[in-house]
Amino acid sequence: MKKITTFLVLLLTCIIGATAADFVPKDGTKYLIKCKGDNNVVCTREGTTILQAQQSVSDASYFTFESKVEGEVTYFYIHPAGDATKYVYTAKTPSTDNNANNGVVGVTDTKDDATCLWKITFNKGNNNPCAFNITPKGYDEYSWNCRDKGIGYWTTRYKNNEDNNSWYITPNVVLNGYYTIKNTATDRRTNLYNDFSVDNITRAAENLPTTLTNNYVWHVTTANNNELTVLNGQGTPLYHDGNASLPTLTVAYSDGTKYYFGEALNCGNSGRNFKLTLWKDGDYSVADNQWTFAPVEVSNIYNVVCNIADGYVTYKATSEKAKNGGFFFLSSAPQVADLTAATVEYYDAAVTVDGNNINVTYTCRLEELKQDAKEALAKTGVGYPTATAATRTALANVVEGTDAAAIATALEAYKNDKTSIQMPEDGKAYVITNIHKTGGKRYMKYQADGTSMVARDDAAELPIEATYICHKVGEKYVFANNSGTYLTWRGNATTDCTNGNKGYTTSYDADYNTFTVAANPNVFGCLSFGAKRDHDAHTQSYYIVTKTGSFEKAGFDNYYNENNSSAFTFEEVTYPNTITFHDAQNINGVSHIATFSAPFATIIPTGVKAYYVSAKGAEATMTAIDAQAIPANQGVILTSESGDAATMVPAAGETAATITGNQLGHSAGAAKSLTAGEGYILGNNGTEGTAFYPCQAGSLPINKAYLLGNGESAIVMNFGNAVTGINTIAAPASAKAPIFDLSGRRVVKATKGLYIQNGKKVIVK
User: Fold this and answer.
1) pLDDT tens digit string along 531-574?
2) Mind listing the pLDDT tens digit for each residue in 426-438?
């Protein structure tokens, strides 16, 4: 009775395993044991009793398993295949010193349960392909490890699913031919197919098509270490999680009909019902992770041979497509007229049929390709690879050569470079233009009733309302307009956005004025950009423009189709916020000077000081601005020791000064017409030095400043550096030298009285 009970326990254990997902061998089946980490297989090499690991597979690489139950645990004797009288055993007691465990797994003729029994358990891992651990009886913290001198032990590490301590245990797999591939799950579409004319995603259909097409048929070949090469009739491999190709699959476990792989086939997209498997903890016993191969009886296979990667041929009668390595299974030989080669830019194509080969030969129009490559290299600025980008260098290195494939590859890489592109810069001004697939081009324009997209004529001059000045804030960007407003996101509904969905705010708002800018994935040289919307559930959105020029509502997704586009060019244009300083003559303590104003607050650059005129009489009292930024619509005087040009960048949260009683007028945002004597213009008459001189009739350029008031005499500037003694005046010794009164203040036009000139007292009568 006891023997029968033991037999039943053993039988049940072999059927269901000691624990869920533990190894359950089939009697008489030979298994390959392969390391997950380096794909080496275990073998009993002739001339040694120590188990070895090697890349190649031979008859000595196979083993059989014999179950033995002790209590509630199933152990296994492991025999070299073909000799059940030998046992894999522990040649010495495992050590906690990992290095001492080298080569301690061997083969013996002596059956000893203390050293010849092994526990085989499956390591499940979260979203990772997993494998088995092989541990000696009584040493659960040890697992086989592929060591340099043979199979050894590696203390505790297998508990962390260490790859070199994990093993695939599979029977010899023989899959060579044409198959359909199906997942064993029943709650989703399961029959695998590709459609490369749409994208590189392996999808699954609920049912196979009534007339089987080549994109559902897979040509499978098996290497002797259970590596499958898988290519379907379109000449495309399996794709894992989108466009990551899997041209080979490692069989990690098989019961002879169902296959579990060392790669998680999380193919497709769950949101579009294309998900093939959820990869349930990597457990080989779960249907989601198991696959079957159904043979397809085919004859008259016609293989496609194509000389470029992007080329393919279409069989007109069925609209089936095939790249190089693909195939068609046809009842009769095709004629050239039955086939159409795909159009590939820069190439002419010819199709021939030679026996069972369909040859698609592409010939490059080299000069056309080279010319386009040179034109692409000539494109610089925002959205294009930088001067130092590796892709630009690579294309420049081959563009003058004759290797068409090298030029085409380099050009494609250059146009697809999204990581080394020039981004908008601080203080630079841009016209932002939407590029639409239907050919439309519209520039972004400020209007008081709402930011709009206006159809663009490349020959027409753009208004200044199309100019946006950039300021980078951390990893985001702020765009100010010449009208003094800040760009915000605009959608297709008033309630979606701040400020009544006008697309701007009149003052800086950190929540709504900071934009995310990124390379557009679809259009060379274009960016996508967007900012926060007013809905809590939609905190960020890219700008999407329809083919009619209206703004669309969308999340952070890119669009480039017949209806919508998120592709924008950022064309650099000039804007008067770069200051050119002039030499300051005869102004004590000032070497370079300029005037400035802007319709938006601007940051005071490093090395520049800003002043306003707080009072004026015979002289103008200059008061320094002690803040980070100059307020909008305020005229100021800028000084610089170096005289280097300075760019005035729109403020974005920087503290702007509070100015009251400023005696400087401005032309912020637009040139200003002045009549003769209406004010004073900063200038230098060549004899009396730099001062405010009475205005002549004319136009003050945009973003400048002038002194308010009228009069006939020039007004000098007092920057608080008043001269306290004759010896501190550094003046040229000439009759035209500047004149100072007795308090040390410079006088532009002397009247009757006592003055200082050339370091001497002079009397003007």
Assistant:
1) 998 876 557 889 999 999 999 987 888 999 999 999 999 999 99
2) 999 999 999 999 8
Residues 6+ apart with CB under 8 A from 353: 302, 333, 334, 335, 336, 339, 359
Specify the higher pLDDT residue, 287 or 516.
516
| Token digits of residue 70 | 């002790």
Q: What is the DSSP letter of 754?
A: E
Q: Would you say 566 and 542 are in contact if contact means Cβ atoms under 8 Å apart?
A: yes
| CA distance to 17, 404, 609, per residue, from 365 (Å) | 64, 8, 59
Give the DSSP per-residue string, 451-470: -EEEE--TTSPPPGGGEEEE
- How many C-beta neighbours within 10 Å does residue 548 have? 10
Residue 630's pLDDT band (cuts 50, 70, 90): very high
Tell me the pairing of strands 177-183 and 218-222. Answer: antiparallel
Of the candidates 365, 389, 188, which has an alpha carbon nearest to the alpha carbon of residue 276? 188
Q: Mean pLDDT throughout 211-225?
A: 94
Average pLDDT of the chain is 88
DSSP-assigned beta bridge partners for residue 699? 673
The per-residue pLDDT for 159 is: 56
Q: Which residues contact 7 (CB under 8 A, 6 or more apart)?
A: none
* Packed helices 404-415 and 366-378: angle between N→C axes, nearest 10 degrees: 30
Q: How many CB atoms sit inside 10 A of residue 73's CB?
A: 14
Q: Which range scores top for mean pLDDT: 192-206, 275-289, 628-642, 677-691?
A: 628-642
Q: Which of 471, 526, 456, 388 is nearest to 650 (CA)?
A: 471
In whole angstroms, give the CA distance from residue 506 to residue 487: 9
Of the candidates 305, 313, 308, 312, the one whose C-alpha atom is nearest the C-alpha of residue 405 is 308
- Contacts for 71-79: CB closer than 8 Å, 24+ residues apart: 72/18, 73/18, 73/119, 74/13, 74/17, 74/18, 74/22, 74/119, 75/117, 75/118, 75/119, 75/137, 76/23, 76/25, 76/117, 76/118, 76/119, 76/120, 77/111, 77/116, 77/117, 77/118, 78/118
Are the CB atoms for 384 and 421 separated by under 8 Å?
yes
Q: Count Cβ atoms within 10 A of the Cβ of residue 8 and give its class: 0-12 exposed, 13-18 middle, 19 or more buried.
A: exposed
Whole-number CA gyration radius for the chain = 40
Question: CB-based burial of residue 572 (10 Å sphere; 0-12 exposed, 13-18 middle, 19+ buried)?
Answer: middle
The answer on pLDDT for 112 being more than 70 is: yes
Sign, CA torsion 251/253/256/259: negative
The answer to whether the CB of 755 falls within 8 A of the CB of 741 is yes
Exposure letters 359-389 (e unless 16+ CB within 10 A, then b):
ebbbebeeeebbebbeebbeeebbbbbeeeb
Q: Which of 612, 573, 608, 583 is nearest to 705 (CA)?
A: 612
Cα–chain center distance at 447? 33
For residue 462, give both structure tokens. 């753009």
- In 3D, which of 612, 577, 582 has the Cα closest to residue 598? 577
| pLDDT of 727 | 30
36 φ/ψ sector (left φ>0, alpha ψ -120 to 50, else beta): alpha
What average pLDDT score do residues 492-503 get? Answer: 90
**CA–CA gap between residue 321 and residue 306 (Å, rounded):** 12
Mean of the pLDDT values across residues 415-430? Answer: 97
Q: Measured between alpha carbons, how far is residue 327 from residues 174, 301, 689 in Å?
A: 22, 7, 86
Q: How confident is the model at residue 752 (pLDDT cuts 50, 70, 90)?
A: low
Residue 424 has pLDDT above 90, yes or no: yes
Composition of the chain by helix, strand, coil, percent to 5: 10, 35, 50
